[in-house]
């Protein structure tokens, strides 16, 4: 079930991506509507991060192309913001929360200009939106995981993009932070932005997203959540990897029963 939209904010066309010649994404073909909150869902190793990185031009493509707002990434880069996985970043890098938030504004600057009062104000406002204004001068190495995630989000907000791609923004954050982040993402959608989020929790996915991409190396489905997050399509996505799969239908309708895929323990 792959639904396409006219005038998409993002078009991924026949995308194949490999690592060391081994394809991990095959023939992915999807379009996303404007002003939507989109969940990218699939088992570990399904290629979710790879899809986001390929859209951001961070990986070479074997075939296919990506268009954002009908243009290539190079033409529209400032309008797109990427929030990588928190664990992919060196948090010991000497920088304050404000420094990191300010990095979001760099795209506005000319080649040799340095950020000024305007950029600092934007960064402070972004930190305030994520409830981190009191930590502006704190070194990022001295923040908790959830606070680091909020700072990352502030950097994206300071960029003032139109399309946001976020790789597991809820990983390792407490429920209060998750609620605050999703509220912020909803406000961004109301302001006309599209936010694409790699997500692991099927239960909350129902509430959070209005569009869902189901991925397992190939695109299983892409469409409005109500039509896409179905037991049959989830079974197709996860195969036997969801424990108690036969109860997915029941669980999806039963609140407070998280179907959370376990992250692999990293060596
Ligand atoms: N740099 C890399 N070199 C080689 N293989 C890689 C590399 N990065 C990812 N892979 C492999 O590509 C596949 C897809 O990885 P990817 O990180 O995109 O999956 P994912 O769906 O985001 O997984 P998770 O839910 O565990 O974060 C996996 O089999 C992974 O081992």
TrEMBL record:
Give yes or no: UniProt keyword Nuclease.
Answer: no
Keywords assigned? ATP-binding, Nucleotide-binding, Transport
Domain named ABC transporter is located at: 10-242
- Matches recorded under Gene3D superfamilies: P-loop containing nucleotide triphosphate hydrolases
Which PROSITE patterns does the protein's record reference? Answer: ABC_TRANSPORTER_1 (PS00211), ABC_TRANSPORTER_2 (PS50893)
Q: Does the keyword Glycosyltransferase apply?
A: no
GO MF terms on file? ATP binding
Homology family: Belongs to the ABC transporter superfamily.
Protein name listed in UniProt: Metal ABC transporter ATP-binding protein
Q: Which organism is it from?
A: Rufibacter roseus
Q: What is the lineage of its organism?
A: Bacteria, Pseudomonadati, Bacteroidota, Cytophagia, Cytophagales
């Amino acid at each position: 079930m792959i639904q396409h939209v006219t005038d998409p904010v993002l078009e991924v066309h026949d995308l194949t991506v490999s690592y060391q010649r081994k394809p991990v994404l095959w023939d992915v073909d999807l379009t996303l509507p404007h002003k939507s909150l989109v969940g990218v869902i699939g088992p570990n190793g399904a290629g979710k991060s790879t899809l986001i990185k390929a859209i951001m031009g961070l990986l070479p493509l074997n075939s296919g192309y990506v268009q954002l707002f009908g243009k290539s990434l190079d033409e529209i880069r400032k309008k797109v913001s990427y929030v990588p996985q928190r664990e992919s970043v060196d948090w010991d890098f000497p920088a304050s929360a404000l420094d990191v938030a300010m990095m979001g504004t760099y795209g506005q600057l000319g080649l040799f200009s340095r950020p000024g009062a305007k950029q600092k104000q934007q960064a402070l406002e972004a930190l305030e939106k994520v409830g981190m204004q009191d930590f502006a001068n704190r070194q990022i190495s001295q923040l908790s995981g959830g606070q680091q995630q909020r700072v990352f989000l502030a950097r994206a907000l300071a960029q003032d993009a139109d399309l946001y791609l976020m790789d597991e923004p809820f990983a390792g954050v407490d429920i209060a932070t998750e609620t605050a982040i999703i509220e912020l993402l909803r406000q961004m959608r109301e302001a006309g932005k599209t936010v694409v989020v790699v997500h692991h929790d099927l239960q909350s996915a129902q509430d959070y997203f209005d569009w869902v991409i189901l991925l397992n190396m190939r695109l299983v489905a892409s469409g409005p959540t109500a039509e896409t997050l179905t037991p049959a399509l989830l079974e197709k996505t996860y195969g036997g990897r969801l424990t108690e799969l036969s109860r997915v239908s029941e669980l999806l309708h039963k609140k407070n029963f998280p179907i959370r895929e376990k992250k692999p323990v990293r060596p």
